[in-house]
Amino acid sequence: MSKTHYEQLLPQLEAMESSRIKQPNMPIDTYLQEASDLEVWMQEDLPKLTAVGISEGTVEALSVRTGALRYAQSEWARERNSKEEATRQWEAQSSEAIDLKNELEHAFRFAFRKHPDLLTKVHEIEDGTGHADLVQDLSDLSVLGKANEGLLQSINFNTEKLDDSASISEGLSKVLAAMNGERLENSSGKILRDKAYTLLKETVDEIRQAGKYAFWKDPERLKGYKSHYFRMR
To answer: How many CB atoms lie under 10 A from the CB of residue 40?
Structure first.
């Protein structure tokens, strides 16, 4: 049901102005549990809550918005984990890529030593730093090497490494694309999660305020309309 609730609210989430978005002030799993607890707690008090202005629509919204936030949080966690996994993959694979790049450049400088035009191309490839540069360098070295395989074979260089270079470049390109997606704090998944939290918070706050008003002289019922998380801190 969480996905259904999320899809039901998605147009509303997408239309929400950024100025309205609230940031969670407690762990999301804790907030979700408090919202679920509130839904159960309030059932006994519905007549009194209705009497002070809580509509049937607000009661129904609590369940829908709780489900939507639960799904949005799961999607955000999946997105975050994917980017973290891509970073781990880069760290694991880039060392091999750098070693191969250095080996190719070393071989090319020797094989092309009597060809200034080719040496110039090697030097151009060597220039630059960074992840994207490494990916492009491996591709460029593969292309340059394949265009001059005879010179490389003359020094007994293993030209299969040219294919390795192209393959590693392609693989790292995909890893880098995953790493370089939207910054985690600005990603669409994070924004939708925060919007879903905002909708739920508005409903929870409305019900809690009504409960505090209706049961201000009834401590036993009043406690169910306060955040356990903040009471314990």
So the answer is: 9
Residue 102 CB neighbour total at 10 angstroms:
11
Select from 155, 153, 178, 175 the least CA-distant residue to 96. Answer: 175
Task: Tell me which residue of 173, 151, 177 sits closest to 162, measured CA to CA.
Answer: 151
Verify that 79 and 191 share a domain, yes or no: yes
- Name the H helices within 16-55: 28-42, 46-51
Residue 79 and residue 126 in one domain: no
pLDDT tens column, 162-201: 999 999 999 999 888 878 765 555 678 899 999 999 999 9
Radius of gyration of the chain (CA): 29
pTM: 0.66
